[in-house]
Amino acid sequence: MLPLAETILILSTAAAIAAPSGMSEYDLAGGLRGQGVEVLYAPGSDLPVPAYAEIVIEGELPPVEEESVLEGPFGEWTGYYTHSAQETVVRINRIMHRNDPIILGAPPMLPTVPAGDQAVPLYSASVTWDHLEASGVQNIKGVWAYARQLMMVVSIEQTGAGDAMHALLAAAGRKRTGGMERYFVVVDEDIDITDINHVLWAMFTRVDPSESIQVLRAPTTAIDPRLSPDKRAAGDLSMGIVLIDACKPFAWKDQYPAANRVDET
Asked: Does 48 reside within a domain?
């Protein structure tokens, strides 16, 4: 059964629910939950909705050229009040809900505040993993997102020179419509990527800043607070992204000093 706070917006122009490699988001949700998501079809619609959703809002998104309203600025998940522009609207056709629906909020506050929208970093991590596999990256041990998804961390088991850079370039090369991932870090399999202290330890002790860090240019999103007013006015959404190889150098990986850690077993 889905969480009581589940809210679904059905857009009549959508052909399918977007997910990596043609996978339905219901497939992704079922994988995370360990069982399939029970769905039903809303009256007069061929789009499935969660059977236990608290509320379902069905509507249409007309082209922004046809109808729009001035939006924002309002607080974004980056932790700043930024983007304001003419945005599309949703024409509501029907609202269905359970008796006394329970709606939980996920305010887009500073990423340091415990997130109520864990689906965002989970989704970013999962589609990044999917893209890494599609790009031929091997021996992936995990993918994790920090500060919502401003920093992506990938764990691999190195089997050859260049594995870390291959993973970094592949992760950064994923098309991120509206995304703002700024830092990409690759670590060895002995690092617990779900613990930021482990990740920072790898960055501080396995990175030579003169050769382990690369900076690329890529499109960012209009909500990026680091975009200058001049760049916004010019429509220039380019921004630097950082690739950090925090793995032991493969050429002498076996000679790297041993960690003085306690065996957890």
From this structure: yes
Q: Are residues 86 and 160 in the same domain?
A: no
96 closest CA partner among 206, 9, 223? 9
* Torsion angle (degrees, nearest 10) of CA 249, 210, 196, 125: -80
Same domain, 127 and 50: no
Local confidence band at 16 (pLDDT 50, 70, 90 cut-offs)? very low
Q: Which residue has the tokens 């202290």?
A: 197
112 within domain boundaries:
no
Q: Is a pLDDT exceeding 90 seen at residue 221? A: no
pTM recorded for the entire structure: 0.75
Query: Of 59-63, 155-159, 178-182, 261-265, which gets the smallest average pLDDT?
Result: 261-265
Give the H or E element holding residue 28: helix 25-33
Question: Any idea what DSSP says for residue 248?
Answer: P
Encode burial over 197-224: b for 16+ CB neighbours within 10 A, e otherwise.
Answer: eebebbbeebbeeeebeeeeeebbbbbb
Strands (E), the chain: 7-11, 39-41, 48-50, 55-60, 68-71, 85-88, 91-97, 140-146, 151-156, 183-188, 213-219, 238-246
Dihedral sign of CA atoms 77, 78, 81, 86 in order: negative
As a whole number of angstroms, the distance between CA 97 and CA 152 comes to: 36
Residue 114 half-sphere exposure toward CB, CA atoms < 13 A: 0
Residue 109 lies in a domain: no
- Tell me the β-bridge partners of 219: 238
C-alpha 161/C-alpha 147 separation (Å) is 30
Based on the fold, state whether residues 128 and 33 are members of the same structural domain.
no
